[in-house]
Design goal:
The protein is α/β, with parallel strands linked by helices and about 220 residues long. The protein has one domain: Rossmann fold (3-Layer(aba) Sandwich). Helix content is about 40%, strand content about 15%. The chain contains 7 helices and 7 strands. A 7-stranded mixed beta sheet has the order 3-2-1-4-5-7-6, sandwiched between helices. α1 crosses α2 and α3 packs parallel to α4. The longest helix is centred in the last third of the chain and has 26 residues. The chain is globular. It starts with 6 loop residues before the first helix and ends with a helix.
Length: about 220
Amino acid sequence: MQNLLTREQISEALINRHSSEIQEKLTSGNVAIAGLGGLGSNVACYLARIGVGHLHLIDFDIVDITNLNRQQYFMEHIGMYKTEAIVSILMKINPYLDIRTSCVKVTKENICELFQENDIICEAFDDPESKAILVNGILEHFPGKKIVAASGMAGYGDSNKIRTRKITSNFYLCGDETSESAPGNGLMAPRVAICAAHEANMITRLILENKRKKD
């Protein structure tokens, strides 16, 4: 079996790419990702690859064959809880990350407990009702926390219509804000991944810009 890279080797490689100042801030980043489907599984992998040090991964669902068209999972993960499956993937990227999982459904009642310790929250649900519950709950209970949400990424339309927009001082929305999943215009890997990358990049910006303001 091939030996794992050491923590020091991974850290040095990240510093070589990002600089020590930037990497120190990324390593101290604390992000919750609510929903580990097409958006969340991609966001989790992107943040793990740049060395965001503290990830809180939340989902209650299991991996299904229909997830394979756009999510980061493989056939071997079918039937596993998404929290377990995504951790197994992230550990292959960087086994030294601090990863916490919550295999629960986000509700109005558990928002305060779930997100108390996280600085930035990524909304990555498919269901509009769940999106609204999370976004409204964070804005109500944690007005000082940053939340990055998504709306509109279905089909195979113009990539450039997916954008990141600042809604309020702490609320950012990614997507084209219009395209909904429908027969012949379903959720597909390329466009979902573009939106997920927008979310991950906005989260990265918030980590670095917020740390800079505190320095």
